[in-house]
Amino acid sequence: MEVDPSRRNKKPRPLLESERERLDEFIDSIHYSARYSDDQFEYRHVQLPKNMLKKIPADYFDSSKGTLKLLWEEEWRALGITQSLGWEHYEVHEPEPHILLFKCVSPATWITLNY
């Protein structure tokens, strides 16, 4: 389940201060799911307030899909999403484009890979 680099900006696109300020009102309304896992990864989804999508800059969106692009860590953190280190935005739930899917290597896999 590799992330398709063509679905990202070529490099992280930082938000301008004015763009960031427009998003501040939504940060407390971001919803984080419980974590769930398989034998390789932990997953969670992050639900942005629907009105927040209207305030996110257009170049964060994939015009062919009508959803957000896959965001670099710097980009999703700039939107106000807060998670521990190691999470990667790997998919957008297309029927509900305000739901972003994240994954990170599960602790059991990390231990196996490092010993």
Automatic annotation (TrEMBL):
List, alphabetically, the SUPFAM superfamilies matched. Cell cycle regulatory proteins
The superkingdom listed in its UniProt entry is Eukaryota
Q: Which UniProt keywords apply?
A: Cell cycle, Cell division
Q: What's the family?
A: Belongs to the CKS family.
Q: Which InterPro entries match?
A: Cyclin-dep_kinase_reg-sub, Cyclin-dep_kinase_reg-sub_sf
| Stated role | Binds to the catalytic subunit of the cyclin dependent kinases and is essential for their biological function.
Record PROSITE patterns: CKS_1, CKS_2
Question: What protein does this entry describe?
Answer: Cyclin-dependent kinases regulatory subunit
The cross-references to SMART domains, in alphabetical order and at most eight, read: CKS (SM01084)
